[in-house]
Every structure is written in C-alpha cells, then in structure tokens.
Design brief:
Helix content is 57%, strand content 13%. The protein has eight helices and five strands, in the order E-H-E-H-H-E-H-H-E-H-H-E-H. Helix 2 packs antiparallel against helix 3, helix 4 runs antiparallel to helix 5 and helix 4 packs across helix 7. The structure holds ligand Z5A. Ligand Z5A binds next to helix 1, helix 4, helix 6 and helix 8.
Length: 218
C-alpha cells in the first residue's frame, strides 16, 4: 500500500506551489507518485470543478455545493486515488475531506456531523496518512490569491470562493485549526507566510519522515 498525503490551507497559502515542488523532490528520489487535486483529478471531477469554482450566473446553494464536491470526491477516490495507493505510489492530493469541513462546514455553516457522514461515504472512509496544513493570516493569503488570479488571462478565473467576504475566510481558517486540534497526529502545521524555499524545506522533512515510517513498516 502507498502513502496518502494531503495539502490543505486557506486561500493563497501556497499549497499548490508546494505540492509541485514536493512532487519534483520525490521524483528525483525515484519514488513513484501522483499529484492530484480536489475538486478534479478525473474527467467528471474537472467538469464539476468548472461548475463549482468559476463565477457564473448559476445559483448554487450550500447543500448542493456540498454534494457536488462529494460527487467529485467519490469519483476521484475510486478512479484515481485507491488504484494509485494499491500500486504502491505516494499520492499527493491538493485538498480533500478536510476542505469540505472547513469550507462547507465552518464557512457555509452546514452541520458538521452531516458533512462527516457525506465525507465518509464519498471517500469510502479513506483517510490521509499525513496532512500538511499551510497556515497564513487570512488577509496575507487573500492578497496572494488575488494577485495570482489577476495574472490569469487565458481561462476563466476560478474565483467563486475568493469573492467571499473576509469573515467567510476567517471561519474557514478557524475550521482548519479546529481539525488540527482534533487530530494532531495526522496534521503538521506549516507557517506558510515564510518564503517558498524555506516552506519547501519543511515540507521535505515531513515527507522524508513519513516515507521512512512507511518503509520501516515494510
Ligand atoms: N473547496 C471546497 O469548498 N470544498 C471542498 O471539499 C474542496 C474544495 C475539495 C478550490 O481549491 C476551491 O474549492 C477552494 C476551496 C474549495 N477555494 N478556493 N478558492 P483550490 O485548491 O484549487 O484553489 P485555492 O485554494 O484557491 O488554491 P490556490 O489559489 O491555487 O492557492 P494556493 O494553492 O494556496 O496557493 P498557490 O497557487 O501556490 O499560490 C498563490 C500565489 O502566491 C501564487 O502567485 C504564488 O506564486 C504565490 N506564492 C506561493 N507561495 C508563496 C510564498 N511562500 N511567498 C510568496 N508568494 C507565494
């Protein structure tokens, strides 16, 4: 069985930058891996991603949004993540079930117990071995995210969530911090306000430890 590592964080925390660098780091060590993301990672997931993230005139209610993320996850777990893990690969995944608790639970205010049930169903109870949470103050992260979006000119901006007000993003961060508190053994909190290379070095040290642990298990 491989190793399942998720990257989580609020807007502009740099997790997408870091997941790519982590992939390069592991590839250089000849460790078989895939990099994937939620929502996305499959054809169905990519279609749902467009619906969920591009700002259109479509009115999506909170519960419908929750179920669309769950549908993308169900497909992703069965089609991509589980086969890769069975194949002995390291799976690096940009967001997963924790994002649903943070955004739909804390951000939108949907019932947390309902979300746990839906997460369990859509993920077939598959939990990450390790979750790196990239933590950054909300205003600093939003500044980065807005700057990145303003550079995109060749495709529709995936900015439906960035357009939410600052209170929404503060509740999301609060949600992540509550998850970290509940499961300290799974999470590593990374101070994402530092420079890219410094953050990368810390990511590599967590990856190395997890891989060592996996190898020790045989
Ligand atoms: N969502 C949800 O609501 N429920 C769910 O169940 C799931 C997701 C799974 C899609 O996520 C959205 O879906 C997300 C939650 C919701 N909300 N939003 N938005 P996403 O991961 O695809 O989108 P994102 O969170 O907006 O990611 P992002 O914009 O790609 O941000 P990021 O990954 O945190 O950061 P980045 O792209 O690596 O960096 C942003 C910019 O900052 C970029 O210009 C970098 O060059 C720069 N950067 C990165 N690191 C640094 C450092 N260290 N210093 C300075 N500048 C930096």
């Amino acid at each position: 069985m491989g190793l399942f590592i998720t990257f989580e964080g609020s807007e502009g925390s740099g997790k997408t930058t870091q997941i790519k660098k982590a992939g390069n780091y592991l590839s250089k060590k000849n460790i078989p891996l895939i990099i994937t993301e939620e929502p996305g990672g499959t054809q169905l997931g990519n279609e749902l991603r467009k619906l969920l993230l591009n700002k259109t005139s479509l009115n999506i209610f909170g519960k419908s949004e929750l179920l669309l993320f769950a549908a993308a996850r169900a497909q992703h777990v069965e089609e991509v993540i589980m086969p890769a893990l069975r194949d002995g690969r390291v799976v690096l995944c940009d967001r997963y079930c924790d994002a649903t608790i943070a955004y739909q639970g804390f951000g939108r205010g949907l019932k947390i117990e309902d979300i746990h049930r839906i997460n369990d169903f859509s993920s077939q109870f598959l939990k990450p071995d390790l979750t790196l949470f990239f933590d950054i103050p909300v205003d600093a992260g939003l500044k980065r995210a807005v700057a990145r979006i303003s550079q995109i000119t060749d495709s529709p901006a995936e900015d439906r969530f960035e357009r939410e007000d600052i209170q929404f993003h503060m509740k999301v961060r609060e949600g992540y911090l509550a998850l970290v508190k509940n499961e300290p053994e799974r999470f590593r909190v990374i101070d994402a306000s530092r420079g890219i290379d410094e953050v990368h070095r810390e990511v590599c040290s967590h990856l190395d430890k997890s891989i060592k642990r996996l190898r020790a298990k045989g």
